[in-house]
Amino acid sequence: MPKMVRRYLYFFGAEFLLFVFSSIMYNTRPYASQLVLHPQTTSLAAVENDRLSAVVGPPTAKFRDNLKPDQKYITSWLDAGWSNDVITYMNLIYLGVVTQRIPIIGYFIPSHLGYHVAPIDFSKVFDLPRLSKLVNLPMLEWHEVKDRNSTEVDELGCWDIWGTSKPETGLPRKSRLLPLLNLDVSYTKTPDWVTTIPNFKHDRHSSLFALASLAEPETRLESLVNPVVHESPRNHVRLPPDEHLVCYDYLYYASAHFPFEHEYDYAPAWKFVGQHMHWTPELEQLGSQYLRRALNLEPSEELTPPYISIHVRHGDFDFLCRDFHRPIDECFSSLDVIERRVEEVQQELWRRNGMRVKHV
Predict the structure, then answer these.
(1) Per-residue pLDDT tens over the stretch 138-197
(2) Judgement on whether residues 314 and 267 belong to the same structural domain of the protein
(3) Which domain holds residue 346?
(4) Which residues contact 58 (CB under 8 A, 6 or more apart)?
(5) In-domain check, residue 118
(6) CB of 86 within 8 A of CB of 19?
(7) Residue 167 falls inside a structural domain
């Protein structure tokens, strides 16, 4: 069975099982920040107190009033599909690990449900205190820094990755998070050397470590010689990238070694962050209820059995059919083809793991 088929059967399963997170903990080297957490000895309640001590106090009308002068922070935005947005925040947190900065995480925008649906807090989806403990890094949400009801507009200078990795646009990536947060952002184009494959128009990835270097004083200064700056949309200011709160326009297309490396087991963002992104208990319970209903399980069956899930992706791949002028019913894989692929996965699970999986 082709590796790519197996990868997509496993990786793009049901969205609520996009990431199967283990609870394996690891030791990390101490951070320069005074807000170091100790996952082996610290309770989640203590972690929550330490996490919130990364700001001055309760949310403020302007975010800068709540940032501690002796701490450094990092943030980014999103505006894509759900899976991409999860990976974007995973990359943001990993950059926080690399740069020893405190990530400030925004909302999820439920674009798959429609733009009329209100944004969802990151901590409503993922267990943030647990994640902060396992990664050994304080993490904040934007609503914990800036009052979510604030009408104050904050000006901020950020790095533009999108205009570098997708030169045909020449513009930073837009995000609906910015008006929600009342942020007026001015962007400075990143140097061309941040891209994973320089001067290759068919790939949009940038190097995580190259992006991390822009958070350091020396590389930042060198990269601001004759900069390309996009003024902010509201107040039309042209600000250099902020040093206290480093920010990037879009981090989905970021990798350490190879494009789309999140599909592989060596991906550092997965190993050091993604595997520790556990669902909240409430969401786990809700997902279990829907799953058990879909599998027609009896209430007496306490444990959910192993199963294979399939993400067919008709909704977002139909444009390929239109591009090739093929009718939808002739373009997508038939149920017979999907059934054959599932059987191949079942056989492989039995051969490699001695596991018989009948639920699909």
Answers:
(1) 999 999 999 999 999 999 999 999 999 998 888 999 999 999 999 999 999 999 999 998
(2) no
(3) 306-359
(4) none
(5) yes
(6) yes
(7) yes
